[in-house]
Amino acid sequence: MIALRISRKLTLFLFVFGMIPIGAETGIWREILLENFELPNYNRENLRTKLEKGTKLPEISLSANFTAPIPGSKQALVLRIPKDANFPFSLYFPKPIEVNAFIKEITIPIYSSQSNGNLTLIIESQDAEVRQLNLTSLNYRGWKSITVSISKNFDQNDRVFLQKSSIRILGFFYLPFEGNDPNQEVLVAIDDITAIVRDKYRPLRNKEILLED
């Protein structure tokens, strides 16, 4: 009985002071779809490189025949990188993916032809700082579901009362492996991008008062 009373008091204390115990978060997370590559049109205008003008870019296409082994996938984005185009480049979404909820993690099925390159996610924080978050080394062959933590890498708390902040996902950055066979053709594919999110907690003007809608 004493232990139960202490547990109840601790839970009440954490709740009043704006902290939620781990057990209370059960059920508040939900999965949302960020991009399924079915509606937007992707072409070479979505590819950018900082190398000299005229640098050959990869071939980009949308394929209904080459998708990840996940339920509901109808189309995937495919990048074919010929040997004479195996240089660093960025792939930007036609429109940045803006998320106002609190993101726990993002999951992306990625196909690799075992090129040993590297793929990162380009994200703009709520402070308009653009950062690259490492996704995976492409040292495997086949499809692989990649999950990356956002909550551990970005501050997503609203700093101004009732002013919603957001994270914007801009695209991907590909960095080739210098030791690749010069005759090797690289193939990378990306399928449905999903995220685990929850609603943001409202900031407290007075930490002794719990704000309600």
UniProtKB/TrEMBL annotation:
GO annotation, cellular component aspect: outer membrane-bounded periplasmic space; periplasmic flagellum
GO biological process: bacterial-type flagellum-dependent cell motility
UniProt key word Heme: no
InterPro entries, per database record: FlaA
Pfam families from the UniProt entry: FlaA
Key words of the record: Bacterial flagellum, Cell projection, Cilium, Flagellum, Periplasm
Protein localization: Periplasmic flagellum
This protein's name: Flagellar filament outer layer protein Flaa domain protein
